[in-house]
């Protein structure tokens, strides 16, 4: 059986590995707009989830919104 040809030449892969291994920041926090997708959106989702859970606990403890 013959081996498959690689997607990229080996030299390119080694160059990319050197580039990413030499970086100090995480690769998903590189650009200024990347912070919106990796920080702001998850925080907004977590905040809305906590609000909805809190409202549900409040409604259950006071008997609000029950179906008869």
TrEMBL record:
It is found in: Mitochondrion inner membrane. It holds the Pfam family COX7a. It comes from Centaurea solstitialis. The keyword Glycosyltransferase does not apply. The keyword Transmembrane helix applies. Keywords: Membrane, Mitochondrion, Mitochondrion inner membrane, Transmembrane, Transmembrane helix. The chain crosses the membrane at residues 39-58. PANTHER family: CYTOCHROME C OXIDASE SUBUNIT 7, CYTOCHROME-C OXIDASE_ ELECTRON CARRIER. InterPro entries: COX7a. This is COX VIIa-like protein. It comes from the Eukaryota. GO terms for cellular component: mitochondrial inner membrane.
């Amino acid at each position: 059986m013959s081996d498959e040809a690689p997607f990229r030449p080996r030299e390119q892969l080694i160059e990319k590995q050197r580039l990413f291994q030499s970086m100090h920041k995480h690769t998903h926090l590189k650009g200024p707009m990347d912070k919106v997708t990796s920080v702001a959106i998850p925080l907004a989702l977590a905040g809305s989830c906590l609000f909805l859970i809190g409202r549900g606990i409040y409604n259950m403890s006071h008997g609000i919104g029950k179906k008869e």
